[in-house]
Amino acid sequence: MEQPAERRREPRLPIVTEVYEQKTCNSLGHTADINAQGMMLVAKGQFNIGEEKRVSMDIPNGKKKPIRTSLTAQCRWCEPHLDTPFNNCGFKFIYPSPYDGEYIETLFMGLTKQY
User: Distance between CA atoms of 8 and 109, rounded to whole angstroms?
Assistant: First the structure.
């Protein structure tokens, strides 16, 4: 199967952190990479295109204690992860207000300098 053309323009950070569904506190999987616009999730399950989840994750910030972040993420694509029981899923972050987007942009701009 041919891979779709890369559309992300922002640098991706190789941050691996566990992602939890906020409502249930169940792990959905872990990030493979992440930026202020979205993340690639190595998921324990499969997601439908367009499905939205409220997620929580701990983002390292160069200090001892990471920042707990809660975001709404929308599945953009999902496909099997090689010959494993996992799926690679691309998620776009949905921001309820410009302030939320600016906060995450600022956080990731600082992290980009560290990686």
Answer: 16
